[in-house]
Amino acid sequence: MAPPKIAIVGRPNVGKSSLFNLLARKRKAVIAPTPGVTIDRMEEEITWEGKKAIIIDTGGMGLEDSHLGEEIQRQAQRAMEEADICIFMVDVRDGLHPLDKEIHTLLKKSGKPYLVAVNKVESSRWEEEATAFYELGEENLHLISVLQRKGIHDLMESLFSRLEIQEEAIPQDKETIPLAIVGRPNVGKSSLLNRLLGEERVVVSETPGTTRDAIEVTLTYKGKNFVLIDTAGLRRKARVDSPLEAYSITRTVRSIKKAHICLLLVDAQEGPTTQDQKIAGLIEREKR
């Protein structure tokens, strides 16, 4: 039996990616104070006290109307549909936001089981402020602080008690082959990944820099198991204009080192560029 899936949902900047990284025990999701940093949904298998599950980080729901905002919303809703249970995260510092109410209504209509996690409760003052969220009509609120790791154990205990959890599985004999899809921005890396999977697993946009995290998904082809890694586009250093993009590029370079095989994608209409050659050189230096 496959491990149950747990989706972390909520509006932008309530701490979803921070909780995801804490549970995954690695800095896998990019974190920044800018709303809309998480675009694609990310998955990671975790083990909690001998029980296995897959956690899913999602983009913030309710961004301003735009094509990208609609895609983020669609990816988040798809994660909710796939999940066995959801963690609905809110931010005590902002109080009960109208978007919180909208997402809560969406969860109730879905019929999916969920828990409400009120984040950033780091003192008795914020414990009092958290009572505002009882307006949602929930009997139980989980007051947590991802920063202080407060309340996380109780949250996870409640979560797993509502699931039929698979005991830690025996590792499979079949080798899984990591394959990284790399290249410049907007050459079609995410589109290729979606085509291989047969579904819109990652957000595709004409806006350069849409992919920020290294997204990993599994694929079995002709009896072979692959982990496909969709990476952020690599631009020339002189054109990297933000710490967030610099970190995304660092993650891409790590993915190249992690992969057994790299697929370098180029734009046939533009032809090979100097940057394509530099990326090919990076792959060659890593002997991939």
From TrEMBL:
Domain EngA-type G as annotated: residue spans: 177-288
Keywords: Repeat, Ribosome biogenesis
Highest taxon above the source species: Bacteria
GO BP, one annotated term: ribosome biogenesis
GO molecular function: GTP binding; ribosome binding
Family, similarity comment: Belongs to the TRAFAC class TrmE-Era-EngA-EngB-Septin-like GTPase superfamily. EngA (Der) GTPase family.
Protein known as: GTPase Der
